[in-house]
Write a structure and sequence with these properties.
The complex is a heterodimer.
Chain A (H helix, E strand, L loop, with lengths): L2 H4 L11 H7 L1 H19 L1 H4 L2 H26 L7 H18 L7 H27 L5 H20 L9 H8 L2 E2 L2 E2 H19 L1 H11 L1 H6 L4 H27 L10 H11 L11 H21 L4 H27 L1
Antiparallel strand pairs in A: 1-2
Helix pairs in contact in A: 3-15, 5-10, 5-13, 5-14, 5-15, 6-7, 6-8, 6-13, 7-8, 7-13, 9-13, 10-11, 11-13, 14-15, 14-16, 15-16
Chain B lengths: L5 E10 L2 E11 L4 E5 L6 H8 L7 E6 L2 E3 L4 H6 L2 E4 L11 H5 L6 E2 L5 E2 L1 H14 L16 H15 L3 E5 L7 H16 L3 E5 L3 H7 L2 E6 L2 E7 L5 H9 L9
Parallel strand pairs in B: 3-10, 3-11, 6-9, 9-10
Antiparallel strand pairs in B: 1-2, 1-4, 4-5, 7-8, 11-12
The chains are: A mainly alpha, B alpha/beta.
Chain lengths: ~350, ~250
């Protein structure tokens, strides 16, 4: 070839090996932060913090948030946002609870529980499709569309229940899914873990995942190469809604009640987890591996601070500060990389 | 001369009160670089959009391989071997070069799951870049980290990899420095040498003369001149664009 081709790598910095690739890996940095945080509390309070019982507790508390954050990761990778996850969780929980109560209440069998769970998850999927249609077809900005469904779904959940929580949840549901263990691991953690692995692999390895990144990176370019962007966005918001429905059923199992009033900040928790995990709110970047760590960092921090005896109001201060610091460092690293 | 590969005859297109094309004609032969030039508002973009399937003409016909065609959309045109390199690049900047090359046409395995066959895509992307003499510092880096020239090379390579017949390039060197501009012009020649017709839209007259075999000039929505690059000067081009020279199609 002629000499001109040689200058094609004029900006190359040659010796980029495996080591450089690892340094560029955001997830690894976030994992390091989690490990340091864990070791910090484990050294300070070994007897209380680093016990099987306590770790199991941290994982259980994080499980439901993780299910929401998995769906949120897909949405944020498309450069969207879903504020409605907590409300959809409540709505789905209420519908699932009402169905289970109708099918036998506390003494309902697995058949009734399954029907109730399906009803709840189905409602979640339905709300997700509504979000997707609003964003992709009606072109309402995701922030506004999901703020709308946040209000509507929570309001309707309260209309259905007259504002009071639904109790009389099947005992089997809370005893097994809510508190039961499989080989020493809580069912909640197993289910959330399976969901994270399944959808993590889908995002990383499938064509569906690749198109999710492409749309977040450049929606117009995706459209031009023939990717059905609108249909894909509807699927992504539907997935987030579906997983919020699953989280609603898990929450019902764990708390034995619908906890209508306790999910107002679930959306922010899930968004924080995804962002701490390395995703960009501008889309195109992120992954479920990072999100898992992003869920665990605030979880470990909260738990550790409680054990250290901090006043509980300080917990939100700490988690909020971690979010901002994490994103700030991520920005610094990104800028350094762009300058290369 | 060979039979035309892609041809427009008497194409008109109106947007509201603006008559963008007034019976425009255009001819591209197999394996040539043909530049389409014209002043702002001459109708270049509109003509290219009708030829690449992005717009439907109000009247007139488009012929591919001598047969009239009607494109249902850009993707339909792509299926028939006509690709476009857009001025704004149209790459997904967070994905790597291979992912961009195969964007929307991923090689997948296990049909129900459609898992990506990264190895195959990376191998074939490396071959495609090699064939065009494009060297990238890091095939696995997001294209965001590449220089402007390298990104333009990725965009061109993608179009060429899928174009069996025609590649449209809309101002492919507009945002580039001198060295990078040379790289892209060189690439255009290599694409032509592979037998793919390149239709170049450019405002840069010396560049047009350097790389094109033929030049077609649009003015006020009509073709006014067809010139051979080898015996044309910048002055003649400018005169054709501004109205000093009118070879044909005049009423």
């Amino acid at each position: 070839m002629n000499s001109m081709t040689e200058s094609y790598d004029d900006t190359a910095d040659g010796g980029r090996g495996r080591g450089a690739a690892l340094l560029r890996n955001n997830t690894l940095w976030t994992l390091a932060v989690l490990v340091v945080l864990f070791l910090f509390f484990a050294v300070l309070k070994p007897a209380e913090f680093a016990t099987t019982f306590n770790i199991r507790g941290v994982l259980t508390e994080s499980a439901i948030l993780l299910v929401l954050a998995v769906g949120m990761t897909y949405v944020i990778v498309t450069a969207g946002i879903d504020l409605s996850v907590g409300s959809i969780l409540v709505f789905s929980g209420v519908v699932a609870a009402k169905t289970m109560v109708a099918l036998g209440g506390t003494t309902a069998g697995w058949g009734g529980i399954l029907l109730g769970a399906l009803a709840g998850v189905g409602c979640g999927l339905g709300w997700g499709i509504v979000n997707g249609l609003l964003v992709a077809k009606a072109k309402v900005p995701p922030l506004i569309a999901t703020l709308g469904t946040l209000g509507v779904s929570l309001g309707l959940a309260q209309v259905i229940t007259n504002g009071s929580d639904v109790n009389r949840i099947p005992a089997k549901l809370s005893n097994v899914i809510g508190f039961g263990l499989v080989a020493g691991v809580p069912w909640l953690v197993v289910i959330a873990g399976l969901i994270a692995v399944l959808f993590g692999l889908l995002l990383a390895l499938s064509r569906f995942g690749r198109h999710t990144y492409a749309i977040g990176s450049n929606a117009e370019a995706s459209r031009r190469v023939g990717i059905k962007v609108d249909r894909h966005l509807i699927k992504v918001y539907a997935l987030s809604g579906l997983l919020s429905g699953v989280a609603g059923v898990l929450s019902l199992a764990h708390y034995s009640t619908t906890t209508i009033a306790s999910h107002t900040s679930d959306n922010l928790g899930a968004i924080a987890a995804v962002v701490i995990g390395g995703a960009s709110l501008f889309g195109g970047v992120g992954g479920i591996g990072g999100t898992v760590i992003g869920v665990l960092i605030p979880g470990v921090l909260r738990n550790g601070l409680i054990i250290l005896g901090a006043q509980r109001f300080w917990l939100d201060v700490a988690v909020g500060a971690v979010l901002v610091v994490a994103v700030y460092f991520d920005q610094l690293r990104r800028r350094a990389r762009e300058r290369e | 001369m060979t039979d035309p590969l892609l041809e427009a005859r008497g194409v008109t297109k109106r947007f509201g009160h603006v008559q963008a094309l007034r019976g425009a004609a255009f001819t591209a032969h197999p394996g040539e670089v043909v530049a389409l030039i014209g002043d702002n508002g001459a109708g270049k973009s509109t003509l290219v959009k009708t030829l690449s399937g992005a717009l439907r003409p109000d009247a007139g016909e488009i012929l591919l391989d001598g047969r009239p065609v009607e494109f249902a959309g850009p993707v339909d045109a792509q299926r028939r071997g006509i690709e476009t390199v857009y001025q704004d690049l149209a790459l997904a900047h967070d994905l790597d070069a291979a992912a961009n090359l195969f964007l929307g046409r991923e090689i997948t395995r296990f049909p129900p799951l459609r898992l990506l066959d990264r190895g195959a895509m990376r191998r074939r992307a490396a071959e495609a870049f090699d064939e065009l003499g494009i060297r990238l510092p890091d095939m696995s880096a997001p294209v965001r980290q590449l220089s402007g020239g390298q990104r333009q090379c990725v965009a061109v390579a993608r179009a060429v990899a899928w174009a069996s017949k025609v590649v449209f390039m809309d101002e492919p060197t507009a945002a580039l420095g001198v060295v990078q501009r040379e790289q892209v012009l060189d690439l255009i020649r290599r694409v032509r040498d592979r037998g793919v017709t390149v239709i170049l839209i450019s405002h840069n007259m010396p560049e047009v003369l350097a790389v094109a075999d033929r030049i077609e000039v649009l003015r006020l929505g009509r073709r006014v001149a067809r010139l051979t690059a080898a015996d044309t000067t910048v002055e003649e081009l400018v005169s054709a664009m501004t109205g000093g020279l009118d070879q044909e199609d005049a009423a």
